[in-house]
Amino acid sequence: MTTYSSRPVVLCLSGHDPSGGAGLQADIEALLAQGCHAAPTVTALTVQDTVNVTDFRVLDRDWVLAQARAVIADLPVAAVKLGMLGSVEMVDTVLELMQSLPGVPLVCDPVLRAGGGGALGKDEVGYAIRERLFPVAAIATPNLPEARILAELPEGSADECAEKLLPHIQHLLITDGHGDETEVHNRLYSRDGSRHTFTCARLPGSYHGSGCTLASTLAGRLALGEDLPSAVESALAYTWRTLRDAEQPGHGQFVPRRLPLDFCS
């Protein structure tokens, strides 16, 4: 693994969740737990809690560019993690930023719906992510409902969605935490035809911020120099532990416990 004189920096382009369960706070906590430094760039503001999202506002493009460029000019960005973008204009903003980061791995978490089901962007945002961002990303991490939206296959299986999406991206991790089976099957597909399945026990309840946790952790592992299949396995294992130890601070979903209780002691 690569050795750094300081913690590797991960640029996070995500929305702000005032409940602290998802979005940039999830990114920061997950990256701290990996030994990385999170550089949070706000793409959108949301009105949400642990139950659902009720409104959101995408930030002005110039503000997002200014935030990210300040980080890129000052810090050695080792990976980029995408969360909520919310508009086609923000997709184009990310593309412009990535031009100044050649060779830096991009982890794309295509946030299209909140955990409670509320939309976090119009349908054309998913199309723009697939057509414009997937080709420059190292990996995308949709859950199965998101993969179906991106693949335009409302009833498609993970395999069917991957077949439709892999022409656009090199690696695709489709998570399957929304079924009724006793085991969860998370599938890593690669354009070269290789495939890995990671199985874990299904946990009870529903969780707010699990996708953000997974994608941020994966970006952190790549920033640390871990190869992609190993980084995926590490990220899935860590995320499962955060869900196993989750807490319910509000009236809705459980929130992953990304940091140990004695983290600041």
From TrEMBL:
Keyword Transferase in annotation: yes
UniProt-listed Gene3D superfamilies: 3.40.1190.20
Superkingdom of the organism of origin: Bacteria
GO BP term, example: thiamine biosynthetic process
Enzyme Commission number(s) of this protein: 2.7.1.49
Residue ranges annotated for the Pyridoxamine kinase/Phosphomethylpyrimidine kinase domain, each copy included: 17-253
Keywords, ordered alphabetically: Kinase, Transferase
PANTHER family found in the cross-reference section: HYDROXYMETHYLPYRIMIDINE_PHOSPHOMETHYLPYRIMIDINE KINASE THI20-RELATED, PHOSPHOMETHYLPYRIMIDINE KINASE
UniProt protein name: hydroxymethylpyrimidine kinase
Source organism: Zestomonas carbonaria
Gene that this sequence comes from: thiD
